[in-house]
Amino acid sequence: MVNYFKDTSLSPQKRAEALVDVLSIEEQATQLKYDAPAIERVGLKQYNWWNEGLHGVARAGTATMFPQAIALASMFDCERIKKVADITATEARAKYNAASKHGDYDIYKGLTIWSPNINIFRDPRWGRGHETYGEDPFLTSRLGVSFVKGLQGEEKTLKTAACAKHFAVHSGPESLRHEFNAIVSPKDLEETYLPAFETLVKEGKVESVMGAYNRVNGEPACASIYLFNKLKEWGFNGYFVSDCWAISDFHTHHLVTSNASESAALALKLGCDLNCGNTYLHIISALNQGLVETSDIRKACVNLMRTRIRLGMLDDKTPFDDIPYNVVSSKEHKLFSQECAEKSMVLLKNSGILPLSDDKSKTIAVIGPNANSRDALTGNYCGTADRYTTFLEGIQDRFSGDILYSEGCHLYKDRVSGLALSGDRYAEAVYTAENSDIVILCIGLDSTIEGEEGDTGNEFFAGDKTDLRLPEPQRKLINKIKEVGKPLVVILSSGSSINIESDCEALIETWYPGQRGGTALANILFGDVSPSGKLPITFYESTELLPNFKDYEMENRTYRYVTNNILYPFGYGLTYSKGKVSCSNLSYQDNTATFTVENNSNIDIEEIVQLYIKDYSQNAVKNYSLCGFKRVCISKNSFITTTIGINKKAFTSVDENGVRGTFGKKFTLYAGICQPDSLSESLTGTKCVSVDINF
C-alpha cells in the first residue's frame, strides 16, 4: 500500500483524502466521535479531540494558570493575549509530547484546544460570561484573532488548533440551554452576534468552530442551515464540532428529530464533522436507513484528518517535538501570568487612599471569604497551578507591618462551620477590623457559584446569577465592617457585573486573576504597579432595569445600546494618575487616527486609549461603537503622539434586513481614556476629544 497521506509535499487536503480513502466506511465513522480509536494499520493513533485552554492548559494537571478570559480582556492588549495563547500552546505541546511517550491519549491531553469563547456577554446574569472577552464585538474580534494566532502559531504545522465557540447566539440562560430557542433579528445577528466569528474565520484562520446547544430562530445551532451557510460564505476551512452532547438534544429536548439516528444524520449532512458526545455512534445505523450517504461520512472524516495532518500527527517529526517538559509552569510563564493579572485589575474607585504606604507602625485587617481563597483566583476551565498566592498571602508577603485576618463569612452560606450558629464569623470580623488601622475586604463570587450548568459546585440557578447583588452573608458582612468606621478598601472578585451597594474608600475589580493574583493585587495596593485595566463589560446598577434574560434583542443592552442603569461604564478604569491624563490634537486621515496623550501626573503610567465612532445614520447603533484601542506607556509629566488604524468597517452599519453597508455620511470620532459619555468623563475626570468626519 502506498501511503500518500505520509507525503509532506502534498497539501493537507490531498493527504487527508488519501488517508480516508484507505479506511472502510465503518472505520471512517469511528473517527467522527471526540474519543476516536486508533487504526493501527495506517498508523493512526487513538486521539481525544476534547481539550481546553481558555486561560492556560486546562484540566490536564499542572500548567501555568493565567487570569480568566474576562480579565485578559480587561487588559485591552492584543500582543499580551497572543502571548498568553502562545504559552498555552507551548505547554500543551510539551504535555502532549510527554504524555504520548507514555501512551497517555486521554481527554484534555491533546492539541485541539476548544478555545476561545467569543460569545457576546450580553447579560450580566449569564454564568459563563467570564469565559468571554466581554460585551463588544470589536474588542472580542481583535482579542479573539490574537488568541487564535497565539494558539496556532506561525509555522506550516499548527502548534495547536484553536476553536471559536459557541456558534452562535449563545449567552444563557444556562438552565434552558438544551431546549432554548434564541429568537434574534437579522440586524442583531450581523451587528452583534456574528462579527467575531466572521473575523476569526476570515482573518484568524481558526481551525475549528464549535456549535452551541440552543436553537437559533428555530434551527439547532449544530444543524443550522443559516449558520453553516455563513461559514461557507466566510470560506471556513477547518472542522466543525458540536458542543458536548448537543446533538442528542435534537431528539431529547429540541424535538426536531425523533431518535438518535435522525439527529446524527441531520447534524452530519449539514456539516457537523465531529460529535462531542455519543450520538454519532448511530452514524452507521443512519447510513443503513438511507438517512446519510457514504459521501457525508467521508467528507467529515477528511475534514478531521486534515486537521490532524496540519498538527503534524502523521509526520515523522514536527517543529514542536523537542519542546522540553520543563517549560510547563516555568518561572518565566508564571511571571507573565502575574504581569497579566497586574494589567487586568480595574480600579473602580479611589478617594486617594491608594496606593497604601508600607508603614510598619500600621495594622492592616484582611477580611472576607475571598481573602484566602484559591477559588477566587481560578475561574472555570482552569488548569492546576503548582503554587497559588491568595490575596491574603500576597499582602502578607508585601507588607512589613502587622496583618490580622478573618474569613468573615462563607461565600454564600449563612455560616462557615456546619455546627455553628448562623453568622459564626461576623464577631471575629468586627473585632479584627476594630484592632486595625485599615480594612481590606475581599468579597465577591467564584466559579463554584458563577459558571457553567453542570459544573461541580454551582449552587444557584445552574450557574447563572439571579441578580447583581452580593450573596446575602457578604452583604451583612460589609455592613458590619462599615459600622466599625475604619478606612475601607474593597477587593471585588467576580467574572461579571456586581453592585456592592455600599460606600468605600477604594474599590478594585480583580476578576479571577490566576495563580499569582495575590502578588499582583499587593503590588497594586502598595503602588509598585499602577492599575491600568478597563472594564470590557458594563457594570449595571440593578437587575430590575435589565431586559428579560431570555430576550436576545440588543435594545438597552451593552454600552452601544444602553440608556440607563449604568453603575460603571464599559471602557472605564482608573490609574494612580488621579485624573491627570488627557487626549488632544485628534486628527483623522487615510484610515488612521492621530492624537496626543498627556500625563500631567508625577508617576509613570500605562493607559488604554480608546477610539469610538458615532454614526448618525438611521441604521447605526443607538450610542457609538469602539473602533480602536491601544495600551500606551507615558512617563510622568510628559506626552506622546500615537496613531491607531481604523478599519473601514467602522463606518458601516446594519439595516433591519441584516445588510451591512455604509449608509451614513456624517460621523464623529472620539479619542480618550474612556467612553465619550458624561458618566465616564465624570468618573475619570477627563474628557474625550473628537473630530467630525464627513464623506
Could you explain how this protein is built, in words?
By secondary structure, the protein is of the alpha/beta class. The chain has three domains: 19-323, Alpha-Beta Barrel (TIM Barrel); 345-529, Glycoside hydrolase family 3 C-terminal domain (Rossmann fold, 3-Layer(aba) Sandwich), CATH 3.40.50.1700; 581-694, Immunoglobulins (Immunoglobulin-like, Sandwich). The longest helix is centred in the first third of the chain and has 24 residues, at 78-101. It is globular.
Set down the secondary structure blueprint:
Layout: H1 12-20, H2 25-30, E1 35-36, E2 47-48, H3 69-73, H4 78-101, H5 137-152, E3 163-167, E4 181-182, H6 186-193, H7 195-202, E5 208-211, E6 215-216, E7 219-220, H8 225-234, E8 239-241, H9 249-254, H10 260-270, H11 283-288, H12 294-310, H13 331-344, E9 346-350, E10 363-367, H14 375-378, H15 391-398, E11 402-406, H16 426-434, E12 438-444, H17 472-484, E13 488-493, E14 506-509, H18 517-525, E15 539-540, H19 558-561, E16 566-568, E17 581-589, E18 592-599, E19 605-615, E20 625-634, E21 638-645, E22 653-654, E23 660-661, E24 666-672, H20 678-684, E25 689-694
Parallel strand pairs: 3-5, 4-6, 5-8, 10-11, 10-12, 12-13, 13-14
Antiparallel strand pairs: 1-2, 6-7, 9-14, 15-16, 17-18, 18-21, 19-20, 19-24, 22-23, 24-25
Helix pairs in contact: 1-12, 4-5, 5-7, 13-18, 15-18, 16-17
